[in-house]
Amino acid sequence: MSAVAWMNSEAFTVLGQHIKWSDMIGNTAGLVALALGWRRSIWTWPVQLASGLILFVAFAGTLTGSAGKQAVVIVVALWGWYQWTRGRQQAQDGGLAVRFATWRERGFLAGAALLGTLAVGGLFTAVPSLSWDPWPDAYVFVGTIVAMYAQAKGMVEFWFAWLLVDLVGVPLAFANGYAFSGFVYVIYGALVLWGAHDWYQRSRTAQAAGTPATPGTTNATALEGAAA
Fold first, then answer.
1. In degrees to the nearest 10, what's the CA dihedral of 196, 199, 201, 206?
2. What is the C-alpha to C-alpha distance for residues 66 and 141, in angstroms, rounded to an integer?
3. How far apart are CA 58 and CA 72, in angstroms?
4. Which of 7, 59, 54 is nearest to 176 (CA)?
5. 10: part of which helix (H) or strand (E)?
6. Minimal CB count within 10 Å: which of 52, 67, 107, 151?
7. Cβ-proximal residues to 125 (8 Å cutoff; 6+ apart), any chain
8. String of b and e for 69-97 (b: at least 16 CB within 10 Å)?
9. Which of 42, 39, 34 is nearest to 85 (CA)?
10. Beta-ladder partners of 5
11. Residue 14 β-bridge partners
């Protein structure tokens, strides 16, 4: 059996839901990546990259739209890794200094999410083979990219974007037969709430201390001491 065939084979069954190895391993890696993002560790990006590669294998044979999303996730993960390696601004504990987005940035994120969903949803509708559920799939597709972009910029709003993705991602995953993805999305929701609270507190503490969080500030050694 080839590695790809093994990845797409059934690992076990839970409550009538068939769990694939690729679905289980890829989403577990995604869960670890989210936890690392909460800790502001640079390792969040290589783990997200690995998750994207594995899930691409999981979806490539059946859901080409979802596979396409993972291809974009891989590209964004590489870009986010570059952003954090280059460094934005370093906090006192050696991790990434997080901040709230400006109103202009929030408008950009919301506009990108809306227009992107309309464009991708239109594409999925025009080419039915790309997705079984064009509009929900487009929403999750674009929302994931917007969330990762905000994460790469160190914006607290990244967590809220993930929460909005989860609200649709959970039922969509179960409906498409990817039960483990659905289970993981539920855990994502809990981690998102926890991570949002942590980043919120850190950003408020930085503001109270008078530490600037200016977009574009760079530091060549930022994140070197981040927790793994």
1. -160
2. 8
3. 15
4. 59
5. strand 10-14
6. 107
7. 134, 135
8. bbebbbebbeebbebbeebbbbbeeebbb
9. 42
10. none
11. 17
Q: What is the DSSP string of 80-140?
A: HHHHHHH-S-B-TTSSBPPBPPPHHHHHHHHHHHHHHHHHHHHHHHHSGGG-SSHHHHHHH
Which has the closest alpha carbon to 161: 136, 202, 192? Answer: 192
Run of H or E residues at 14: strand 10-14
| Sequential pLDDT tens for the chain (228 residues) | 666 677 667 777 766 666 778 778 887 888 888 888 878 888 999 999 998 888 787 776 665 656 777 888 899 899 998 888 875 555 444 456 678 899 999 999 999 999 999 999 999 899 887 777 889 888 988 998 999 899 888 898 988 898 888 888 777 777 766 666 677 777 777 777 777 777 778 777 666 555 444 443 333 333 333 333
C-alpha to C-alpha distance for 16 and 3, rounded to whole angstroms: 25
Cα–Cα distance measured from residue 73 to residue 46, given in angstroms and rounded to the nearest whole number? 12
